[in-house]
Write a structure and sequence with these properties.
The complex is a heterodimer of chains A (362) and B (281). Chain A is of the alpha+beta class. Chain A has two domains: 230 residues, P-loop containing nucleotide triphosphate hydrolases (Rossmann fold), CATH 3.40.50.300; 121 residues, OB fold (Dihydrolipoamide Acetyltransferase, E2P). Helix content of chain A is 23%, strand content 35%. In chain A, strand 20 and strand 21 form a beta hairpin. By secondary structure, chain B is mainly α. Chain B is 73% helix and 0% strand. The chains are: A alpha+beta (362), B mainly alpha (281). Chain A: InterPro entries: AAA+_ATPase, ABC_transporter-like_ATP-bd, ABC_transporter-like_CS, ABC_transpr_MalK-like, ABC_transpr_MalK/UgpC-like, Mo/tungstate-bd_C_term_dom, NA-bd_OB-fold, OB_MalK-like.
Chain lengths: 362, 281
């Protein structure tokens, strides 16, 4: 069993705190993705779990063991680095078997383990090549193979796909997911790419400025972002946000128009300044999406621009002077300036406090 | 101009340049194999008539003419001093270079600058203070005395060269090795050292050549067969009124050879080392 738990973990460089006492419990075999913009402390957190960075305060445990003072080699972890970190002077076979060789395992066991890893990752034809003779995707697979061979308690991935092109990234994403299904080890994965986070994670941990902002399943963080940061960071395109003031059961916008309150809203009072949020998927031209079962608000809006994506089109329009995006699920040609009747699904709209950005209500 | 003419001109130019570079060396080598008389003939005899190994026999005390110069001792001193000072300089240079490349510490930039500035001081400018210091400490005319000096000369250079090489080895590799079960020490020897090998090898060769060829300082702090190196020993061939050019040339060939052989053996590393170093600055 390899749970990972972080208790009030702090990382300090001199007088500067880069990770501010985070708490996180990762279950055995769980796939957790730490996501956030650059400089949010996600990589530092991963490196602290790996033992590559010392912890300034707090406690990290892997399984039953507190590992604060253990060297990386004593933690029984594996890590896949952003730039692969393959040993350039060794063949793929030697790279794969390196950890077992260091552990002093017998030759035949090392050979078998390297062969097994190569088979799982489709690397068998390349076993005798050096990393310099491999493509980016193959190198990435060797890095993963090297991690598997050790049979670690925890896999750590530090932005492993960011050096690959878009097509390969999608492919490797699937391979990583398959790998997790196959070996079923606890995985902590760091990325700044919210698509990777959404597609891979059992649970997403969103970080900002050294704090954990929200933890939850991909759907939870997508559907119930705790604040405007998460709302705009998760999901593509980001959530539309419009400032307004609560006024008699509606939100009055800057141009005097009003949007009905979302169905699930906590206690609010008239005159309260709020930010109204909804995703492109919940603003659809009438007749161009599935019939909405919940309450809707119908608004007429002029199209600024349409972005055809094939199966669907993103529609750019404006509400109260704020540019917002809607979605057309059965696309048809449109022209700029054309006025369409849109349906806004109130079940999926959100209210945030305009000052703090924090979500109001459930 | 046709392509062929261009080729001929290029070869001609190369030949002239190479002639200018190689002629003195060639003359030394030729002189090593012929008698003093022929060397001193005017006009110069370009095509040797009488080649023999007599000069070598003479300096090793085996021929009819015996030159009373303890070449074997000088050779031994040169080997001991050059090898020892190179090994020490490379070990210190490697540790220093690694530290400069990998760790942050107060005064790092200044320390590195001072180390490099020390190379701006011409060695000979230090010969008098060195002489006085070594006389006081009893290091004058000892192998250890020369080894210490040569190590000091070589360390800044080996630090500089290996630092550049270690800086090129991504830090991730050492971290990956540590996660794979290595101690930091193992990670260094199994991963970082093999990757910086070219740089370390070229640092070693340059340090060795510097020590092997150094004359100015050694001529001040060595006196007897206990410590005199080959270049200093060359001066033994000058007497008050005569110079034994033949013997001197033979000894020069003996001095040149190990350096030449070594350079040929490791030229791959040397070139890699030089070009790598050039890129990093």
């Amino acid at each position: 069993m390899a749970e990972v738990s972080l208790n009030n973990v702090v990382k300090r460089y001199g007088a500067v705190d880069v990770v501010h006492g985070i708490n996180l419990d990762i279950a055995h075999n769980e796939f957790v993705v730490l996501v956030g913009p650059s400089g949010c402390g996600k990589s530092t957190t991963l490196r602290m779990i790996a033992g590559l960075e010392e912890i300034s305060d707090g406690e990290i445990a892997i399984g039953e063991r507190v590992v604060n003072h253990l060297a990386p080699r004593q933690r029984n972890i594996s890590m896949v680095f952003q730039n692969y970190a393959l040993y350039p002077h060794m063949s793929v076979r030697e790279n794969l078997g390196f950890s077992l060789k260091i552990a002093g395992r017998p030759q035949d066991e090392i050979a078998r383990a390297a062969q097994d890893a190569a088979r799982i990752l489709g690397l068998e034809p390349y076993l005798d090549r050096t990393p310099g003779e491999l493509s980016g995707g193959q190198r990435q697979r060797v890095a993963m193979g090297r991690a598997i061979v050790r049979r670690p308690d925890v896999f750590l991935f530090d932005e492993p796909l960011s050096n690959l092109d878009a097509k390969l990234r999608t492919q490797m994403r699937i391979e990583i997911k398959k790998l997790h299904a196959q070996v079923g080890t606890t995985i902590v994965y760091v990325t700044h790419d919210q698509v990777e986070a959404m597609t891979l994670a059992d649970r997403i941990v969103i970080m900002k400025d050294g704090h954990i902002v929200q933890t939850g399943t991909p759907l939870e963080v997508f559907e119930r972002p705790v604040n405007t940061f998460v709302a705009t960071f998760i999901g593509s395109p980001p959530m539309n946000l419009i400032d307004g003031v609560v006024d008699a059961g509606a939100v009055r916008l800057s141009d005097g128009s009003a949007l009905p309150l979302p169905t699930r809203t906590g206690p609010i009072r008239d005159g309260q300044r709020v930010t109204y949020g909804f995703r492109a998927d919940n603003l659809m031209p009438e007749g161009h999406g599935p019939a909405e079962t919940g309450p809707v608000a119908t608004i007429e809006l002029p199209i600024t621009l349409a972005e055809p994506l094939g199966a669907e089109s993103l529609i750019l329009t404006e509400i109260a002077g704020v540019e917002v995006q809607g979605k057309m699920l059965t696309p048809r040609p449109t022209r700029p300036g054309e006025v369409l009747r849109f349906q806004l699904a109130l079940d999926h709209c959100h209210l945030f406090d305009a000052d703090t950005g924090v979500r109001l209500g459930q | 101009m046709s392509r062929k003419q261009k080729d001929i001109l290029t070869w001609l130019a190369t030949f002239i340049v190479m002639l200018i570079i190689c002629l003195p060396g060639l003359w030394v080598v030729l002189s090593a194999f012929r008698p003093n008389g022929e060397i001193l003939t005017k006009p110069a005899v370009w095509i040797p008539r009488d080649l023999s190994l007599d000069n070598f026999r003479a300096i090793f005390g085996m021929g009819e003419d015996v030159v009373g110069i303890p070449v074997a001792s000088y050779f031994r001193n040169s080997v001991v001093i050059s090898v020892t000072s190179t090994v020490i300089a490379v070990l210190i240079g490697m540790s220093g270079g690694y530290a400069f490349a990998r760790y942050r510490f107060p005064g790092k930039g200044a320390a590195f600058l001072w180390l490099m500035l020390s190379r701006c001081v011409p060695g000979i400018a230090l010969s008098l203070p060195l002489f006085i210091l070594w006389s006081w400490t009893g290091l004058i005319d000892t192998q250890i005395g020369v080894i210490v000096v040569y190590t000091a000369i070589n360390v800044p250079f080996t630090v500089w060269l290996t630092e550049g090489f270690f800086r090129q080895v991504p830090r991730d590799l050492s971290e990956a090795a540590q996660i794979d079960g290595c101690t930091p020490w193992q990670a260094f020897w199994k991963v970082e050292f093999p990757l910086a090998k070219s740089g370390i090898a070229s640092a070693a060769i340059f340090a060795f050549l510097t020590s092997w060829n150094e004359y100015a300082l050694a001529s001040q702090i060595t006196r007897s067969t206990d410590s005199k190196t080959l270049p200093v020993g060359l001066m033994d061939f000058t007497a008050q009124f005569t110079i034994d050019w033949a013997g001197m040339s033979a000894m020069a060939v003996i001095i040149i050879n190990p350096a030449l052989i070594l350079t040929f053996l490791v030229q791959k590393h040397l070139i890699a080392g030089l070009t790598f170093g050039g890129v990093k600055g």
